[in-house]
């Protein structure tokens, strides 16, 4: 069965009208998933003094248009920082939202890019790549132990600690994998935070005199 929740056609014999409806549903699902990922990057990652926040956002925004489906796993501490509207969103019976227990301060997000699936933690937690979806997307509650146990399994392609973001250490390790699997050509300059881009551009202007 489908695990991406994109409403794909059940059989190749569907009528043209049904196929058109499915295409629209798929597009809407991808758009919502992009919004969920932006929510994770812009709201949840910054909610608990996450030093990786800016760097994570700069990295993943480069791949936003490749997202097929995203599911946010909200940590307990992050829940308290949300406004009432957002809390209501996480109470919905919806496969796009879940809860994460077992580690203080951290949330996570599952991102389906099609050929590669990512589970990304906030703060200094790990980012892991998988060849297939390694979790039950219909589940409402997850534990850190449960996610960590996926590392080293047959589906696990790589695991990187979010080390030294200011020198782009984890980003440079991860970028070749993302470019390879998604057939993109994102450069190291593309994933810089705005402050570093401005600093580099100013340096180049001064060099040119």
Describe this structure in words.
With 209 residues, the chain is α/β, with parallel strands linked by helices. 41% of the residues lie in helices and 17% in strands. It has 7 helices and 7 strands; from the N terminus they run H-H-E-H-H-E-E-E-E-E-H-E-H-H. The chain has a 7-stranded mixed sheet with strand order 6-2-1-3-4-5-7. A hairpin with a 4-residue loop joins strand 3 and strand 4. The protein is globular. The termini are far apart.
Residue runs with pLDDT of under 50 for 5 or more positions: 1-25
Question: Shape from CA axes?
Answer: globular
What's the average pLDDT? 79
The oligomeric state of the chains shown is single chain
User: Largest sheet, described in full?
Assistant: 7 strands, mixed
* Protein structure class: alpha/beta
Strand order of the largest sheet: 6-2-1-3-4-5-7
Percent helix, as a range, is 40-55%
Q: What is the beta-strand fraction?
A: 15-25%
Report the order of strands and helices: HHEHHEEEEEHEHH
Number of helices: 7
Rg estimate, integer Å: 18 Å
Tell me the span between the first and last alpha carbons: 61 Å
Q: Give me the count of strands.
A: 7
List its traits.
41% helix, alpha/beta, 209 residues, 17% strand, 7 strands, 7-stranded mixed β-sheet, single chain
List the helices and strands and how they pair.
Elements: H1 16-44, H2 53-60, E1 69-75, H3 76-81, H4 84-91, E2 97-101, E3 108-112, E4 117-121, E5 126-130, E6 141-143, H5 144-148, E7 156-161, H6 169-182, H7 194-208
Parallel strand pairs: 1-2, 2-6
Antiparallel strand pairs: 1-3, 3-4, 4-5, 5-7
